[in-house]
Write a structure and sequence with these properties.
Layout (H helix, E strand, L loop, with lengths): L1 H30 L17 H7 L2 H32 L6 H13 L2 H12 L5 H7 L15 H26 L3 H9 L4 H12 L1 H15 L4 H6 L11 H10 L4 H26 L7
């Protein structure tokens, strides 16, 4: 009877998990093996042709390279900045509550609002950044229109948006560390840096692993900001994988090729997740 109660309790969550995770994933994989259909020519099974077309698509490789650089630029910087902010606001300093709120405020802003705020910053000549640069005699620059700077501009905006969110997890973890550890380090003559490197950071590894997984996922799901700021341009210099999938499905109406790209994205995220768990889990100290 207890088994029946257990399955009844699990059923609602299982239905949601299957309906919104497993079934869409399997349906997407299935759609990737069919051709693009229309009212005159229905979709037909073509095997691996969509995957061959994806590997021969230069835009796919450009977008994938952009996404890897985007992940490399946002993930370490966001985590380091979040940990630094958490260490700062965990100390006794004047106006600590106000500082915490200031660090966390970008997180609660809607993505569209964030994109519009940074669009004001990056607007050539009249934007805030170019106005500040003009005070020291530096001419304006089209930050979002130059292929050399557009991806970096998106990276800066993303770090500003995400660092405060990750800070909350580090702050919660820091507040649960036993204060006796710091006292023991002082008695042993250890400085702040030595205590952080040998005691605090190892104990924060479970939080770091959680934050790292979220940061990786976030680096591959950016759509809203690109839709407002660049539309993936110029010349796909800021185009990322999920936005390319969105564009393929809803602008070009090629849902089957978009499904193929989605399978590639899921495979890439699965590889990263496995690498994180198998490589980093050994370094995580659970209490």
């Amino acid at each position: 009877m207890k088994h029946v109660y257990g399955w009844l309790l699990l059923t609602p969550a299982a239905i949601l998990l299957i309906g919104f995770t497993h079934y869409p994933t399997l349906r997407t994989i299935g759609e990737s093996f069919f051709s693009r259909g229309s009212s005159l020519r229905p979709s037909r099974f073509i095997g691996l042709d969509n995957y061959r077309a994806m590997f021969d698509d230069p835009i796919f490789w450009k977008v994938l390279t952009n996404n890897l650089w985007f992940a490399l630029g946002t993930i370490p910087t966001s985590i380091i900045l979040a940990l630094t902010m958490a260490l700062l606001v965990n100390r006794a300093l004047p106006g600590r509550a106000l500082v915490r709120m200031a660090f966390f405020t970008p997180t609660i802003l809607p993505m569209i609002a964030v994109a519009n705020i940074w669009l004001f910053f990056y607007t050539p000549d009249i934007g805030l950044i170019d106005q500040i640069l003009s005070l020291v005699g530096i001419s304006g620059h089209n930050w979002l229109g130059d292929p050399a700077t557009v991806l970096g501009a998106i990276i800066v905006m993303t770090i500003w948006k995400e660092a405060g969110f990750f800070m909350i997890f580090y702050l919660a973890a820091l507040q649960h560390l036993p204060p006796e550890l710091r006292e023991a380090s002082r008695l042993e003559g250890a400085g702040r840096w030595h205590h952080f490197r040998r005691v605090t950071f190892p104990l924060l590894m479970p939080t770091t692993l959680f934050v790292l997984i979220n940061a990786v996922i976030n680096s591959f799901k950016l759509v809203d900001h690109l839709f407002i700021l660049t539309k993936g341009g110029p010349n796909n210099a800021s185009n990322l994988l999920l936005y390319y999938i969105f564009e393929t499905a809803f602008s070009y109406f090629d849902t089957n090729f978009a499904a193929t790209l989605t399978v590639a994205l899921l495979f890439l995220l699965a590889l990263m997740a496995l690498a994180q768990f198998y490589l980093l889990d050994k370094r995580v100290h659970y209490r």
